[in-house]
Amino acid sequence: MDPSDPGRPESARVAGAVTRLREAGERVTTARYAVLRVVDAADRADEHLSAEQIGARVADLEPAVHRATVYRTLTSLVDTGVLSHVHLGGSATVYHLTEPATLEEYEGGYRREHQHEHAHVQCHECGRVFDVPAEVFDEARATLREQLGFELDTGHAALLGTCRDCHPT
Amino acid sequence: MDPSDPGRPESARVAGAVTRLREAGERVTTARYAVLRVVDAADRADEHLSAEQIGARVADLEPAVHRATVYRTLTSLVDTGVLSHVHLGGSATVYHLTEPATLEEYEGGYRREHQHEHAHVQCHECGRVFDVPAEVFDEARATLREQLGFELDTGHAALLGTCRDCHPT
DNA sequence: ATCGTTGCAAAGCATTTGCATGCCT
DNA sequence: AGGCATGCAAATGCTTTGCAACGAT
C-alpha cells in the first residue's frame, strides 16, 4: 500500500488521517486507504454514509476488498480515533473523518463546516441529516450536568425531528 | 380475548390502552393484550425494553404467542398510537405506553413521572436510560426552529452521554 | 360469517467470527 | 522476518414475510 503513489489525487484530510494512522502504529492497507477516501468524499459532499453504504463504494474503488474487512476496518479506524461515528435514529450508524485537534498540522483545504464539533439532527420524514453547531445544546448540556450529573454528548447520536421541507404546515 | 376477565389484575393504563385500541377499530387479541401488560409493567418499573426483550417477557406470559407476532403487534400498536417507541443510540428501539391526551378519562393511578412528555438520555457506558423533562431542550428547540426551520422531537430518540456514576472524574 | 390477526417456517439482511494466507512495516 | 490485517465462508442474531388456519367482532 503506497498512498503517496503519484497520480492518485489525495485530499489533505485523507493525508492527515493516514499520518495519524501511522503515528498510532497502525498499518495503512488498501482497505483502510479506500475506506478513508470514501468517507472523505462523502464528508465533502455533506453525505452521511452507513457501514453498508461505505462498503458499496469501497467495492467500486477496490473490488478486491471484502465486505467483512470494511466492517473490521471501520471498527479499528474508530478505535484509533481517525474516524468517528454517529448513531442515527433509524438504527443506522454513519461515519465521519475525525477532525484533528490542530488544523495547522495539515495544510489548507478544510471546509469551514468541518472545522468545529457539530451535532446532528435528522428528519424522520425524509431521512436527511443536518449538521448544527454543538453550542445549540449548551443550555441543555448545562442543565443536565447540574441536575443529573449527566454529561450530554451531542456529537455521538443524532436527534430526530422534522425539517422545514417536511413540515405539515 | 376478554380483558375484562375477572381475576386478571389490570392497571388503569392497560385498560385505557385497550379502550383506545377498540375505539380505533382494532381488535384486542391475546398477543396484543400481553404486549400491553408487559410494556405497562416495564414502564412502571422505569425499565426500557426492546422488541426482543418484550418478546421474551410475552413468552413467559403467553407461551403460545409467536415472536414474529410480537414484532407485528408492536408495529401495529405504534401505528395506532397506543404505544410509542424511542430510538436509543446503540441501535435498539424501546417501547412505552403512550399517554392519553386527557388523563381524566382514566381513573387515578398514573405515576407523576408518566404524566408529561419526557426526553431520554442514555449513558453509553452503562447503557442505562434516564428520563428527563422535555423542557430541558426548549431553548435548543427554539434555536433550531428559528434558524433551520427544524422541529426538534426530543421524545423520539435518546441522546447519548455519560451518567454521573460512569464519569471518569 | 368476515376479514383482520396469528403461527409457522423460511427467507432476508447486516454484521461477526475462525482460520489460513498475505502483505505492510 | 514477523505479526497484524485480510479474504473467504459459514454462522449469528434480529426482523420480516408468505401462506394457511384461527378467532375477535
Largest interface: A-B, 33 and 33 residues
Average of pLDDT of chain A: 83
Poorly predicted parts of chain A: 102-115
Number of helices of chain A: 5
Question: What does the model show?
Answer:
Two copies of one chain form a homodimer. Chain A is α+β, with helices and mostly antiparallel strands and 169 residues long. Chain A is 37% helix and 17% strand. Chain A contains five helices and seven strands. Chain A has helices spanning 12-23, 30-44, 51-61, 67-80, 138-148, and strands spanning 49-50, 83-87, 93-97, 118-123, 129-133, 151-152, 159-162. In chain A, strands 1-3-2 form a three-stranded antiparallel beta sheet. In chain A, α1 crosses α2 (30-44), α2 crosses α3 (51-61) and α3 (51-61) packs across α4 (67-80). The longest helix of chain A has 15 residues, at 30-44. The radius of gyration of chain A is 17 Å and the shape is globular. The interface between A and B is medium-sized, with 33 and 33 residues. β6 (151-152) of chain A pairs antiparallel with β7 (159-162) of chain B. The first copy, chain A, binds a DNA duplex (25 and 25 nucleotides) through α2 and α4.
